[in-house]
Design brief:
This protein is of the alpha+beta class and 277 residues long. 38% of the residues lie in helices and 22% in strands.
Protein backbone atom coordinates (compact mmCIF):
# COMPACT_ATOMS: atom_id res chain seq x y z
CA UNK A 1 0.00 0.00 0.00
CA UNK A 2 3.01 2.31 -0.38
CA UNK A 3 2.19 5.65 -2.00
CA UNK A 4 3.86 9.05 -2.41
CA UNK A 5 2.79 12.66 -2.92
CA UNK A 6 5.31 14.85 -4.78
CA UNK A 7 5.09 18.63 -5.34
CA UNK A 8 5.18 20.38 -8.70
CA UNK A 9 7.91 22.91 -9.37
CA UNK A 10 8.63 26.12 -11.19
CA UNK A 11 12.20 26.22 -12.46
CA UNK A 12 14.78 28.70 -13.76
CA UNK A 13 13.08 31.60 -11.96
CA UNK A 14 14.44 33.90 -14.62
CA UNK A 15 18.23 33.91 -14.54
CA UNK A 16 18.77 30.58 -12.77
CA UNK A 17 18.72 28.53 -15.97
CA UNK A 18 18.79 24.78 -15.19
CA UNK A 19 19.85 25.47 -11.59
CA UNK A 20 17.13 27.18 -9.50
CA UNK A 21 13.72 25.82 -8.61
CA UNK A 22 10.79 26.33 -6.28
CA UNK A 23 8.42 23.58 -5.09
CA UNK A 24 4.71 24.38 -5.41
CA UNK A 25 1.58 23.24 -3.57
CA UNK A 26 0.30 21.25 -6.56
CA UNK A 27 0.91 17.52 -6.30
CA UNK A 28 1.35 14.28 -8.20
CA UNK A 29 0.29 11.09 -6.45
CA UNK A 30 1.78 7.66 -7.18
CA UNK A 31 1.89 4.24 -5.60
CA UNK A 32 2.67 0.56 -5.92
CA UNK A 33 0.11 -1.56 -7.72
CA UNK A 34 -1.22 -4.30 -5.44
CA UNK A 35 -3.90 -7.00 -5.37
CA UNK A 36 -7.33 -5.45 -5.02
CA UNK A 37 -6.23 -2.15 -6.59
CA UNK A 38 -9.29 0.02 -7.39
CA UNK A 39 -10.19 -0.04 -11.08
CA UNK A 40 -10.19 3.77 -11.13
CA UNK A 41 -6.40 3.83 -10.71
CA UNK A 42 -4.48 3.99 -13.99
CA UNK A 43 -1.40 1.78 -14.09
CA UNK A 44 1.65 3.45 -15.67
CA UNK A 45 2.81 1.97 -18.96
CA UNK A 46 6.47 1.18 -19.66
CA UNK A 47 7.13 4.67 -21.05
CA UNK A 48 5.62 6.68 -18.22
CA UNK A 49 8.33 8.66 -16.36
CA UNK A 50 7.17 7.29 -13.00
CA UNK A 51 7.54 3.70 -14.21
CA UNK A 52 10.91 4.39 -15.88
CA UNK A 53 12.35 5.97 -12.72
CA UNK A 54 10.90 3.22 -10.54
CA UNK A 55 12.68 0.55 -12.56
CA UNK A 56 15.89 2.62 -12.84
CA UNK A 57 16.00 2.84 -9.03
CA UNK A 58 15.56 -0.93 -8.69
CA UNK A 59 11.79 -1.18 -8.22
CA UNK A 60 9.96 -4.43 -8.94
CA UNK A 61 6.37 -4.63 -10.15
CA UNK A 62 4.04 -1.94 -11.43
CA UNK A 63 3.14 1.56 -10.30
CA UNK A 64 0.23 3.94 -10.76
CA UNK A 65 0.34 7.72 -11.03
CA UNK A 66 -2.23 10.52 -10.99
CA UNK A 67 -2.62 14.08 -9.83
CA UNK A 68 -2.98 17.73 -10.60
CA UNK A 69 0.28 18.64 -12.36
CA UNK A 70 -0.46 19.38 -16.03
CA UNK A 71 1.90 17.85 -18.60
CA UNK A 72 3.96 20.02 -20.93
CA UNK A 73 3.11 23.28 -19.18
CA UNK A 74 6.37 24.13 -17.39
CA UNK A 75 5.36 22.98 -13.91
CA UNK A 76 7.76 20.07 -13.64
CA UNK A 77 5.45 17.14 -14.36
CA UNK A 78 8.19 14.81 -15.59
CA UNK A 79 10.55 15.78 -12.75
CA UNK A 80 7.90 15.13 -10.11
CA UNK A 81 6.87 11.86 -11.79
CA UNK A 82 10.46 10.62 -11.81
CA UNK A 83 11.06 11.61 -8.20
CA UNK A 84 7.87 9.72 -7.31
CA UNK A 85 9.02 6.56 -9.10
CA UNK A 86 12.46 6.63 -7.50
CA UNK A 87 11.01 7.17 -4.02
CA UNK A 88 8.60 4.26 -4.48
CA UNK A 89 11.54 2.01 -5.38
CA UNK A 90 13.48 3.17 -2.31
CA UNK A 91 10.46 2.60 -0.06
CA UNK A 92 9.89 -0.85 -1.55
CA UNK A 93 13.52 -1.88 -1.14
CA UNK A 94 14.59 -0.13 2.07
CA UNK A 95 11.47 1.17 3.89
CA UNK A 96 9.16 4.16 3.98
CA UNK A 97 11.35 5.68 6.70
CA UNK A 98 14.40 5.65 4.43
CA UNK A 99 12.39 7.07 1.52
CA UNK A 100 11.27 9.97 3.72
CA UNK A 101 14.82 10.71 4.94
CA UNK A 102 17.07 13.40 3.48
CA UNK A 103 19.37 10.73 2.04
CA UNK A 104 16.40 8.99 0.44
CA UNK A 105 15.22 12.23 -1.14
CA UNK A 106 18.70 13.00 -2.45
CA UNK A 107 18.93 9.54 -3.99
CA UNK A 108 15.56 10.04 -5.69
CA UNK A 109 16.73 13.45 -6.92
CA UNK A 110 19.85 11.97 -8.52
CA UNK A 111 17.87 9.28 -10.33
CA UNK A 112 15.32 11.81 -11.57
CA UNK A 113 17.93 14.39 -12.59
CA UNK A 114 19.87 11.81 -14.61
CA UNK A 115 16.71 10.86 -16.48
CA UNK A 116 15.62 14.49 -16.90
CA UNK A 117 18.95 15.69 -18.28
CA UNK A 118 18.76 18.80 -16.06
CA UNK A 119 18.44 18.94 -12.27
CA UNK A 120 16.35 22.03 -11.43
CA UNK A 121 12.81 20.61 -11.36
CA UNK A 122 13.85 17.32 -9.79
CA UNK A 123 15.68 19.10 -6.96
CA UNK A 124 12.63 21.11 -5.89
CA UNK A 125 10.24 18.18 -6.19
CA UNK A 126 12.61 15.94 -4.18
CA UNK A 127 13.61 18.39 -1.44
CA UNK A 128 10.79 20.93 -1.31
CA UNK A 129 11.15 24.67 -0.87
CA UNK A 130 13.72 26.70 -2.82
CA UNK A 131 16.61 24.71 -4.25
CA UNK A 132 19.90 25.24 -6.03
CA UNK A 133 21.12 22.32 -8.14
CA UNK A 134 24.23 21.52 -10.17
CA UNK A 135 24.41 18.19 -12.00
CA UNK A 136 23.98 15.60 -9.21
CA UNK A 137 24.15 18.00 -6.27
CA UNK A 138 21.20 19.85 -4.77
CA UNK A 139 20.87 22.09 -1.74
CA UNK A 140 17.69 23.45 -0.21
CA UNK A 141 18.11 27.11 0.74
CA UNK A 142 16.09 28.57 3.64
CA UNK A 143 13.52 31.11 2.44
CA UNK A 144 12.74 34.31 4.34
CA UNK A 145 10.19 35.61 1.82
CA UNK A 146 6.67 34.70 2.88
CA UNK A 147 4.73 35.17 -0.30
CA UNK A 148 2.28 33.24 -2.43
CA UNK A 149 2.81 32.01 -5.98
CA UNK A 150 0.27 32.69 -8.70
CA UNK A 151 0.62 30.69 -11.91
CA UNK A 152 -1.15 31.35 -15.19
CA UNK A 153 -1.45 28.23 -17.37
CA UNK A 154 -2.49 28.61 -21.03
CA UNK A 155 -4.02 25.83 -23.08
CA UNK A 156 -1.02 25.24 -25.35
CA UNK A 157 1.87 23.01 -24.34
CA UNK A 158 5.63 23.37 -24.73
CA UNK A 159 8.23 20.71 -25.41
CA UNK A 160 11.31 21.41 -23.26
CA UNK A 161 13.48 19.46 -25.69
CA UNK A 162 12.20 21.39 -28.69
CA UNK A 163 12.42 24.80 -26.99
CA UNK A 164 16.09 24.17 -26.15
CA UNK A 165 16.88 23.89 -29.85
CA UNK A 166 15.92 27.57 -30.21
CA UNK A 167 18.52 28.73 -27.70
CA UNK A 168 21.99 29.96 -28.65
CA UNK A 169 24.84 27.57 -27.93
CA UNK A 170 27.18 30.48 -27.11
CA UNK A 171 26.74 33.61 -24.99
CA UNK A 172 28.76 36.78 -24.56
CA UNK A 173 30.84 37.42 -21.46
CA UNK A 174 28.55 40.34 -20.61
CA UNK A 175 25.44 38.13 -20.73
CA UNK A 176 27.13 35.41 -18.70
CA UNK A 177 28.06 37.92 -15.99
CA UNK A 178 24.54 39.38 -16.11
CA UNK A 179 22.94 36.01 -15.41
CA UNK A 180 25.44 34.97 -12.75
CA UNK A 181 24.86 38.22 -10.87
CA UNK A 182 21.06 38.01 -11.13
CA UNK A 183 20.80 34.37 -10.10
CA UNK A 184 23.14 35.00 -7.17
CA UNK A 185 21.06 38.04 -6.21
CA UNK A 186 17.92 35.91 -6.27
CA UNK A 187 19.39 33.36 -3.85
CA UNK A 188 20.41 36.19 -1.51
CA UNK A 189 17.06 37.96 -1.80
CA UNK A 190 14.98 34.86 -1.03
CA UNK A 191 17.28 33.84 1.82
CA UNK A 192 17.23 37.27 3.47
CA UNK A 193 13.69 38.41 2.68
CA UNK A 194 14.70 41.32 0.45
CA UNK A 195 11.54 41.48 -1.70
CA UNK A 196 12.65 44.77 -3.28
CA UNK A 197 15.43 42.91 -5.09
CA UNK A 198 13.25 40.14 -6.53
CA UNK A 199 12.23 41.91 -9.74
CA UNK A 200 15.83 42.67 -10.77
CA UNK A 201 16.95 39.23 -9.59
CA UNK A 202 14.60 37.39 -11.97
CA UNK A 203 15.78 39.17 -15.13
CA UNK A 204 17.44 36.91 -17.72
CA UNK A 205 19.46 37.08 -20.94
CA UNK A 206 19.99 33.38 -21.73
CA UNK A 207 16.61 31.82 -22.48
CA UNK A 208 13.54 33.74 -21.40
CA UNK A 209 13.23 36.29 -24.24
CA UNK A 210 13.67 33.60 -26.90
CA UNK A 211 11.01 31.40 -25.35
CA UNK A 212 8.60 34.26 -24.65
CA UNK A 213 8.75 35.25 -28.32
CA UNK A 214 7.01 31.92 -29.05
CA UNK A 215 4.27 32.54 -26.44
CA UNK A 216 3.32 36.24 -26.60
CA UNK A 217 0.26 35.72 -24.37
CA UNK A 218 2.56 34.54 -21.60
CA UNK A 219 4.67 37.68 -21.94
CA UNK A 220 1.50 39.76 -21.58
CA UNK A 221 0.52 37.74 -18.50
CA UNK A 222 3.91 38.45 -16.91
CA UNK A 223 3.50 42.17 -17.55
CA UNK A 224 -0.05 42.11 -16.14
CA UNK A 225 1.13 40.34 -12.97
CA UNK A 226 3.88 42.90 -12.39
CA UNK A 227 1.53 45.81 -13.07
CA UNK A 228 -0.90 44.34 -10.52
CA UNK A 229 1.74 44.32 -7.80
CA UNK A 230 3.70 41.05 -8.06
CA UNK A 231 7.23 41.19 -6.63
CA UNK A 232 8.58 39.22 -9.57
CA UNK A 233 7.33 37.20 -12.55
CA UNK A 234 9.04 34.66 -14.78
CA UNK A 235 8.51 32.04 -17.44
CA UNK A 236 8.01 28.78 -15.55
CA UNK A 237 10.52 26.24 -16.85
CA UNK A 238 10.38 26.28 -20.65
CA UNK A 239 6.80 27.59 -20.50
CA UNK A 240 4.19 28.29 -21.55
CA UNK A 241 3.14 28.89 -17.92
CA UNK A 242 3.89 32.18 -16.17
CA UNK A 243 4.63 32.21 -12.43
CA UNK A 244 4.86 35.16 -10.08
CA UNK A 245 5.65 35.69 -6.41
CA UNK A 246 3.60 38.18 -4.45
CA UNK A 247 2.33 39.43 -1.13
CA UNK A 248 -0.58 37.13 -0.11
CA UNK A 249 -2.93 40.12 0.04
CA UNK A 250 -2.30 40.78 -3.68
CA UNK A 251 -3.21 37.29 -4.93
CA UNK A 252 -6.82 38.04 -5.90
CA UNK A 253 -5.91 41.35 -7.56
CA UNK A 254 -3.21 39.67 -9.63
CA UNK A 255 -5.44 36.74 -10.54
CA UNK A 256 -8.13 39.12 -11.82
CA UNK A 257 -5.59 41.03 -13.92
CA UNK A 258 -4.34 37.98 -15.82
CA UNK A 259 -5.62 37.11 -19.33
CA UNK A 260 -8.78 35.04 -19.43
CA UNK A 261 -7.22 32.74 -22.02
CA UNK A 262 -5.44 30.73 -19.30
CA UNK A 263 -6.20 29.03 -15.99
CA UNK A 264 -5.06 30.69 -12.78
CA UNK A 265 -3.82 28.69 -9.79
CA UNK A 266 -3.29 30.30 -6.40
CA UNK A 267 -0.44 28.33 -4.83
CA UNK A 268 2.07 28.41 -2.01
CA UNK A 269 5.72 27.42 -1.79
CA UNK A 270 5.68 23.75 -0.75
CA UNK A 271 8.09 23.58 2.18
CA UNK A 272 7.40 19.94 3.01
CA UNK A 273 8.57 18.21 -0.14
CA UNK A 274 7.47 14.66 -1.00
CA UNK A 275 5.70 12.48 1.55
CA UNK A 276 5.88 8.69 1.36
CA UNK A 277 3.31 6.69 3.33
Amino acid sequence: MIRVSVPASTANLGAGFDSLGLALSLHLEAGLVHDGQPSTVRVCDAHHPTHVAFRRAGGVGEVWSSGGIPMGRGLGFSGAARVAGALLAIAQRDSVVVANSHDGRLSAFRTAAELEGHPDNAASSALGGFTVAATDRAIRVPVAVYGDVVVWVPENTTSTKESRTKLSQTVSLADAVWNISRSSLLVAALATGDVAALHDATQDRLHQDVRLAMVPDTKRAMRAALDAGAWAAWLSGSGPTMACLCEPSRVDTIAMALPRSGQVHRLRIDMSGPVVS
